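Regression test attached.
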Amino acid sequence: MKGKHKIFLGYAAGVGKTYQMLEAGQELRRKGVDVVIGYFEPHGRKDTIEKTEELETVPRRASSYRGSTFEDMDTEAILRRHPAVCLVDELAHTNVPGSERQKRWQDVMVLLEAGIDVYSSLNIQHLESLNDQILQITGIRVRETVPDWVVDDADEIVFVDVTARALRHRLERGVVYSTEKAHKALESFFTEPNLNALREIAMRHTAHEIEDRISDLQESAGPNPVPTEFGGLVQTDRKDCVLVCIDERPSTAIVIRRAKRVADYLRAPCFAVYFTQDSSLNLIHGMDRDMVEKHLEFSRNLRIETTILEGEDMPSAVVDFARRHRVTQIFMGRPERRNWTDFGRNSDLHKIVSMARDMEITIVAERRRSS
Amino acid sequence: MATSQDRRRDPEELLRRLGGGAERNAHRGRLKLFLGYASRVGKSFRLLDEGRRRKERGQDVVVGMIQPKQPPDVQKLLEKLEIIPSDGALDVHAILARRPQVCLVDELAYHNPPGSRHAERWEDVEELLDAGITVVTAINLQHIAEQQDAVERITGKRRTETVPEKFVRTADEIVVIDAPPHDAAADTRALLELRELALLLAAEVVESGDIFLGSQEKILVCITPRSNVKRMLDTARKIADRFHCEILVLNVRQERLAGKDEELLERYLSYAGNVGGKTHVMEADDFATTVLEFARAQHVTQIFVGHSMRSGWKDLFFDSPLDKLIQAAESMDVRIFPHDDPA
């Protein structure tokens, strides 16, 4: 039987994922479960290192690459040792070139296949589908990523939380990084707005993962006595339904996030549409097509149902779709300045506004970062 | 003190006061909240552990309230902390006299025994905050008043001891305790649903600090006798509650109104005042320009208008005031509301 995978999900380094994972390992050990540490990154954090006491560690495998020595998880040794549960830190890690597998998450898949349960730790910014969002919010391109399906397939996800303020204090006190590194981090990645944005994304992501698991339970349990038509969520009296219009601009990501937030808040279903005159997307410019595909992918990962609309006329295709799905709210980005020569009553936006007079329409402006 | 008298009598008034985040007392203590989704997810431990760490860092910490009968790990933490004895209700008097920097209060949702200083524990906490004491406390999602419909649907019962969500949202910091359900035999589905609600609520609280949408939000609601004013204002109020932001309400008069419309508008303006909007009436010919000038001067970030902001047959040939507004609103969101509620 395949092993079970439990992920301790955090929103940044230093929130306490590893600590909580080790704590869970300690609890298993006390209960007499055969648990080992497969990989642990101490980062010189005293409290965390203390949590490894009395836990067995499978030694790392050293290999040299271009004259330096690197240490990675020794997956083969863990397979030979075959514990019931293995603790694996930093799921997004990239192994040294020439290793059996490129990524640590692939090693974890091997352990799970062999019937070993795995507890792992992961930060939200390493999730592949969030890569662009994270870049937009923090200005930093995260290089090590984990495919979303790894998280979707996990049996359990635990969100490890701490406030942004407390995390910054931890950095200031030198708990997370050395003082010099901490100072740089506090000014770049670990600013309060960045951390709050990452934290919100991580919370919502965990909530959406939980919602999927509720739907799975529902399916396996057969017809449910409590009729809920959207995941396990409550329907409000007025049935809201949110639609977001995707276009080729990077800023659409913000519109998608806004729309999904509103849908979450209203416990309403959420759809995303992209209109094209050619549904194979072949006519769209290469770069634009990549962007559209990213937006569609991002929407799907937020559990938004995506549709590509084909037709002659964008406004009628969008409004038709909205009516068919009983949409009550539409979210759209604001057209850019350069397209405004024809912005009057004949533009697509204005046609939608005048055709969908029974719906709430929000035209989202591009906000500049206020900090 | 008159204020504490008032507070005792009218929690509603207190809540209204909390809504206007801008007028907060500068010496107010910070409120930090641990939010769990069920009992026995480890809230008490996290609460006391936070107290221990603060004490080790030199803060003056006391325990104002802790539930009896705690597991050994919690007992061990308790031994390291000073406890202000209580008999059911928080001993607000004793805590105020002791004046710690930080007071730990387990289980925020609690009806105080009759004859206590306040009817509810969250009102006691409010008084401590007002006196400049930082309060760290814990609550279970199932005890939030506004969540009771969902809680009943999920668990089959409503809770009587509750805290208004508005108070929860005033927390300076909120931390989710997301330990997965311990008991494998318990109703997994119910627990998952409660977990999801707790995470979404916390996300909403965190969201108010968003860099793209957040602290400087300001909503302008443009009303006419023909707009769906109730829906627009209720939506604005909900957003204002989430983001602690200001609502402005504007009526631009282009011509003399019929007597009936005049009455309607009066009613709308007074409703606007009731939901906390600052009302303005301006006389001008050009709707779009007037609204935009006002909005820019007031640093508005979102404009609410009705679809009804049109001028009939002329729209076929000219841009309507609505078209002009959308066109020129640049850095502001424009939200257009249907004339009639579809419900």
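Expected vs. actual: identical. Chain B touches chain A through 58 residues (CB under 8 Å).
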